[in-house]
Amino acid sequence: MNKIICFFALLLSIHWYSAQDQKNVSFVKYEELEKRIQSEGDKLLVVNFWATTCAPCVKELPYFIEVNNKYKNDPKFKMILVSLDRAVDKERVLKFMKNKNLTAEVILLDDIKRMNTWIPRFEKNWDGNIPVTIFYKNGEKVHFNDGEISREDLENTITKYLN
């Protein structure tokens, strides 16, 4: 009986969780992010690579938040903002998340030393510059956007692949 109660408590906590309430940021390695992408199943997964020190990244983030707020209740949609800030800058990332009211889930990819290994695994044409946004459906990459994306292009790409 206790297992059943714990299971339902876990489900409720997941259901009520929103990234807006995110008080911490998880550190992940590339392999963990890759597993996460595969585990999202039939969702359209929008993965944006950014950093607090990247002006074009900061400029486009409001578009991501607007679009995430529009689609976040759709069970076929998920957005993850992957910070490439250094692990020692975790507090700056947390402050930035709060100040910018980031409503999508934020993770910190703590794998800078292996960038030359994991960047081409995400996209062979990615030169390492950010921002970059990759769209996945059923764990497969369906669209790669190199550089800043407009709100219109973000919305159009989501609309194209969501259904």
TrEMBL record:
Residues 8-163 form the Thioredoxin domain. Keywords: Redox-active center. It comes from the Bacteria. Signal peptide: none annotated. InterPro entries: AhpC/TSA, Thioredoxin-like_sf, Thioredoxin_CS, Thioredoxin_domain, Thioredoxin_ResA/DsbE_sf. Gene3D superfamilies: Glutaredoxin (3.40.30.10). PANTHER family: THIOL:DISULFIDE INTERCHANGE PROTEIN DSBE, THIOREDOXIN-LIKE PROTEIN HI_1115. This is TlpA family protein disulfide reductase. It comes from Chryseobacterium tagetis.
